[in-house]
Amino acid sequence: MKKKIIYLLIVLLLIFIFTVFLKGLYKPNLYTPSQTSNKNLIEFSGKDLFSNIEITSQQLTSSKKFTIINIWASWCLPCRSEHPILMDLSKNPNLNLVGLNYKDQSDTAKKFIYELGNPFSNILVDNNGIISIELGAYGIPETFIINSNTEIVKKYIGPLTNESFKEIEKIINQ
Amino acid sequence: MKFFKFILIIILPFFILQKNLIANDNSILANKISKNLRCLICQGQSIYDSQSDFAISMKLLIKKKIEEGDSEKKIYQYLKDQYGEWIVYDPELNKKTIFLWLFPLILFTFGGLLIFRKVFIN
Predict the structure, then answer these.
(1) Percent of chain B that is helix, strand, coil (3-state, to 5)
(2) Alpha helices per DSSP H over A27-161
(3) What is the DSSP string of A131-147?
(4) Which residues pair with A143 in a beta bridge?
(5) Number of domains forming the structure of chain A
(6) Closest residue in A to B59 (Cα–Cα)
(7) DSSP B87
(8) Distance of alpha carbon A110 from alpha carbon A125, whole angstroms
(9) Which of A5, A46, A76, A132 is deepest in the core (most CB within 10 A)?
């Protein structure tokens, strides 16, 4: 009787371990940080790409109902593909678009903007990538939507698409 | 004048040495922290080992935070808030991870008891 109980326990344990591993197989291996979090925006400052004037995060977020911070670089191909969407978003009067130029060369960044248009009210330079990391980004392009209480309402990892454009419009017009 | 020169020769190297020692301590701590952080780009590698842009920037941020006087615990907490608990290799003891922490202990106790029974009782 005792032996039977031990065997049963071992079999149950094996089934349990098998189920845990089987479940683990179907879980995605790549980790991505959460995209919806009502965290407060950290305070940061950086130099403007064109005027070279130091600008603080408070100055950036205080003017409109919502602020979008978009991390981009001229060497990033997906940034090129999402640029028309940013241009469309810049037409919204409730929105202030801020660019964060990530690890880029000033000349090529300016060329990129002259070529494709400037949707941003300000473009801050992030030469060593520290501001982006402080914001919680881990790759580019990445877009943060911030409300007037400086809370990050939504975060988009990767290029913006037509669906994300509609989503953003919905958030802003709420 | 000679006295001042003497003092300068004695004190100056002391200050330089002290500054280097602090810098060295900071880089040891920065390395320690970056070894316990996962890289989100090269998943499976630590921030210390990875050469991705993300990891390079992260190392700079850790150095900056240490220079600003942040403690090791505060830096981990800050990064956990930004990227989630996944970023640290050492999982916290909470509701979700209690089994992970306790299971080896249970196995160890159970195994120990079995060995004890086999050796001393039989």
Answers:
(1) 70, 5, 25
(2) 57-61, 77-89, 106-116, 130-135
(3) HHHHHT--SSSEEEEEE
(4) A70, A156
(5) 1
(6) A130
(7) G
(8) 11
(9) A132
Cα(B13)–Cα(B15) distance, integer angstroms:
5
Q: Where are the domains of chain B?
A: 28-90, 93-122
For residue A35, the chain B residue with the least C-alpha distance is B83
Fold type of domain B28-90: Helicase, Ruva Protein; domain 3 (1.10.8)
Task: Give the closest-approach CA distance of B79 to chain A in angstroms.
Answer: 8
Beta strands, E only, chain A:
39-40, 45-47, 54-56, 66-72, 95-102, 122-126, 142-147, 151-157
| End-to-end CA, chain B | 87
Strands of A39-40's sheet in order across: A39-40, A151-157, A142-147, A66-72, A95-102, A122-126
Which neighbouring-strand residues pair with A122?
A98
Predicted ipTM of the assembly: 0.75
CATH number at residue A81: 3.40.30.10
- For an interface test with A, the pick among B53, B85, B89, B100 (most A C-beta atoms closer than 10 Å) comes out as B53
Phi, psi values for residue A92, rounded to 5°? -75, 125
CB-CB under 8 Å, B43 with A134? no
pLDDT truncated to tens, each residue of chain A (174 aa)?
A: 888 999 999 999 999 999 999 998 888 777 777 766 667 888 888 899 999 999 988 888 877 889 999 999 999 999 999 999 999 999 988 889 999 999 999 999 999 999 999 999 999 999 989 999 888 888 889 999 998 888 888 889 899 999 999 999 898 887
Look at residue A114 and tell me if it is in a domain: yes
A102 vs A72: CA distance, rounded Å: 6
Distances (CA, A) of A44 to A58, A60, A67, A137, B105: 8, 10, 15, 14, 45
Enclosing domain of residue A160 = 39-172
